[in-house]
């Protein structure tokens, strides 16, 4: 697509239209910026014209922006690019920019004209989705590798919903699980279940999580006194982690627990000391 040049001194867009429009000469120096572009960036026209318009591009995107412009101008092809542009308040926003060559009536190349729109909200949603998909991919790989195949985990939590959710994740990864809703029930389960790892909530009523680990550590080694254990913390306060370690827990996980962190921690604890 090519744009024929407008009459001399004519604006490229009706300034009443809230569009971020620009025009550049063949040497890529800017010769026109719409009122909306200037309002968005907070730059004065005299600051932005010429080479000044590049100062609003994010430093990390500047080389990519420049490369795309050089390629499009040299080839007289459409310019299509997403990059971050500094808004008047200092925040960088993702912009989608599209430009096309401008030609005179006799076909001479006059430069480019284009328009850009703010796509920051969509870009953030897209980035969140990419991160979520990556977490899912990593979890799937961990599950497919059966990190916990045959590992016995005793899950101790007085919240049925939380307990079942963790057991489901562990079970999918190949672990054998057993539930206990109190320290007494957990201690009763030890002789028959012989867990490799205890996963216990420290937020249970009456300090049951601390009571459990102290009772386990008091057992002889042949009865499970050296059994590995992970504590579930209701906060990430350093003092809580120190208290958990001092009581005898080998690892701590802060709630809400990410499935991948849960699997990685149990897999590490299940390894021979």
Summarize the structure.
This protein is α/β, with parallel strands linked by helices and 273 residues long. The chain has helices spanning 35-41, 45-48, 59-75, 120-144, 160-172, 183-193, 208-217, 238-247, 259-270; strands spanning 3-4, 20-24, 30-33, 79-86, 92-103, 109-118, 152-156, 176-180, 197-201, 228-233, 251-254. It has 2 domains: 3-118, Beta-Lactamase, CATH 3.30.450; 143-270, Rossmann fold, CATH 3.40.50.2300.
The number of strands is: 11
CATH superfamily of the largest domain: Response regulator
Strand content: 15-25%
Number of helices: 9
Instruction: Work out the count of structural domains.
Output: 2
The rough form would be described as elongated
Structural class: alpha/beta
Q: Which segments are poorly predicted (pLDDT under 50) over 5 or more consecutive residues?
A: 5-10
| Spatial gap, N to C terminus | 68 Å
What is Rg?
31 Å
CATH class of the largest domain: Alpha Beta
Average the pLDDT over all residues and give the rounded result. Answer: 88
User: Order of helices and strands, N to C?
Assistant: EEEHHHEEEHEHEHEHEHEH
* Residue share in helix: 25-40%
CATH topology value of the largest domain: Rossmann fold
Q: Describe the main β-sheet briefly.
A: 6 strands, mixed
What is the annotated CATH architecture of the largest domain? 3-Layer(aba) Sandwich
């Amino acid at each position: 697509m090519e744009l024929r040049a407008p009459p001399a001194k004519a604006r490229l867009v009706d300034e009443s239209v809230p569009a971020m429009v620009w025009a550049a000469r063949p040497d890529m120096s800017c010769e026109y910026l719409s009122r909306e572009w200037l309002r968005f960036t907070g730059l004065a026209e005299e600051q932005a014209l010429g080479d000044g318009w590049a100062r609003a591009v994010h430093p990390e995107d500047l080389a990519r922006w420049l490369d795309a412009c050089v390629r499009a101008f040299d080839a007289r092809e459409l310019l299509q690019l997403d990059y971050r542009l500094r808004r008047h308040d200092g925040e960088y926003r993702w912009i989608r920019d599209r430009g096309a060559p401008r030609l005179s009536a006799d076909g001479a190349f006059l430069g480019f004209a284009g328009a850009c729109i703010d796509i920051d909200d969509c870009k953030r949603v897209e980035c969140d989705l990419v991160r979520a998909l990556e977490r899912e991919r990593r979890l799937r790989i961990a599950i497919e590798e059966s990190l916990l195949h045959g590992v016995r985990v005793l899950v101790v939590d007085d919240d049925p919903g939380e307990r079942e959710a963790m057991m489901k994740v562990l079970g999918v990864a190949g672990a054998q699980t057993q539930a206990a809703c109190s320290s007494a029930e957990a201690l009763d389960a030890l002789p028959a279940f012989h867990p490799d790892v205890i996963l216990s909530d420290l937020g249970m009523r009456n300090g049951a999580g601390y009571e459990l680990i102290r009772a386990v550590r008091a057992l002889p080694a042949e009865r499970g006194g050296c059994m590995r254990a992970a504590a579930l913390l209701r906060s990430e306060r350093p003092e809580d982690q120190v208290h958990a370690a001092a009581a005898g827990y080998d690892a701590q996980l802060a709630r809400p627990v990410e499935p991948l962190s849960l699997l990685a921690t149990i897999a590490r604890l299940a390894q021979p000391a």
